[in-house]
Amino acid sequence: xxxxxxxxxxxxxxxxxxxxxxxxxxxxxxxxxxxxxxxxxxxxxxxxxxxxxxxxxxxxxxxxxxxxxxxxxxxxxxxxxxxxxxxxxxxxxxxxxxxxxxxxxxxxxxxxxxxxxxxxxxxxxxxxxxxxxxxxxxxxxxxxxxxxxxxxxxxxxxxxxxxxxxxxxxxxxxxxxxxxxxxxxxxxxxxxxxxxxxxxxxxxxxxxxxxxxxxxxxxxxxxxxxxxxxxxxxxxxxxxxxxxxxxxxxxxxxxxxxxxxxxxxxxxxxxxxxxxxxxxxxxxxxxxxxxxxxxxxxxxxxxxxxxxxxxxxxxxxxxxxxxxxxxxxxxxxxxxxxxxxxxxxxxxxxxxxxxxxxxxxxxxxxxxxxxxxxxxxxxxxxxxxxxxxxxxxxxxxxxxxxxxxxxxxxxxxxxxxxxxxxxxxxxxxxxxxxxxxxxxxxxxxxxx
Length: 448
Prior knowledge:
The chain has three domains: about 5-130, 3-Layer(aba) Sandwich (Rossmann fold), CATH 3.40.50; about 150-380, tm_1862 like domain (pyruvate-formate lyase- activating enzyme, Alpha-Beta Horseshoe), CATH 3.80.30.20; about 385-445, CATH 2.40.50.140. The longest helix has 24 residues, at about 355-380. It has helices at about 15-30, 55-65, 70, 85-95, 110-120, 170-175, 180-195, 220-225, 245-255, 270-280, 285-295, 315-330, 355-380; strands at about 5-10, 35, 45-50, 75-80, 100-105, 130, 150-155, 155-160, 175-180, 200, 235, 260-265, 300-310, 335-340, 385-395, 400-405, 415-420, 425-435, 440-445. The protein is α/β, with parallel strands linked by helices. The N and C termini lie far apart (about 50 Å). The chain is built from 13 helices and 19 strands. The chain is globular, with a radius of gyration of 22 Å. Helix 8 (about 220-225) runs parallel beside helix 9 (about 245-255) and helix 12 (about 315-330) packs parallel to helix 13.
């Protein structure tokens, strides 16, 4: 298998990206050459997402586009991994004959073995391997980082046991399972030794961390230990369940300088009837109190949330309640998804369905409102002093570098354009001098 060029495309969330990084490193260790050029690859792997309809469509489109290289390019074998395989592999066997293998998340550590078998037997008798997921990466698994060298995601758990009625993740990824704390710390230390300055904690629900382990560790304890690792500048937390935001967690974030004053808390909705049907834990009053508590204990904390509009039963009155909530809470960052009716979920059978046009209109209303809120918040930051981690060149002559503040998570939030002399990975002390709707503009306090 040595020196065979392999192209790996990963779609979907950062949790999926970590799986792709493990597969990429595993293949490299076996002597294969992982390439960023899809046209030169003899083996193409598509690591897919299947969370909602748009994600499925993106995955299918990518598979069909890359399958064309089996006819016109160097590609000999096409492998589909991840959530789409786990959810629809049996159906896709006949619909996508171009695909040589469908592998579920459980097969991540065995990717090299599967590829070796495929190369020795180009037409395998079994084209699908999707056992029930139980794989949980450890610090011993290799990773080939695909993020900028100064930032890395750290998966602290996999799977989910929340059973929200609109969500297919438990059936795709299995039950929630946490990594032992010492194992997480060992990987974090390894990342810091490789020059990573910012680690971003991810899981389906980071606030559930440790609840399934005998020792019963928790997220605040883990964050405290992580903050003691030398070399790390920022530690960021994503995917926190809003009903599980505790005083202990917030006090930990406030106390430790290396913990980003930032939380991603997907609310999904604020109407109590809809929250009940969604099987989301916590009432609207509880969620609001937790948000207020976060802002009290961690002054200046940046809060991100995500919402679902058009869920069955979302009347105009219930939607208006959601709109007022966004207006009052003034989240720093906000994403809106239209409800996707997914087979295999309880909500699939809910009556009172809402048209796609109404869903789209409601999403547009909220995003227009958030644009106004975001612009106001950004304008209020003009003149403030912030740390900015530099990501790279911006293409903007006036502000030639682009980076992020503590309040901007990679890929999902706005960015900060910087006037400075720098290199990627630098952390610069800057003054914000201008603001856009989602982005900031700053200049370094160190004169070039």
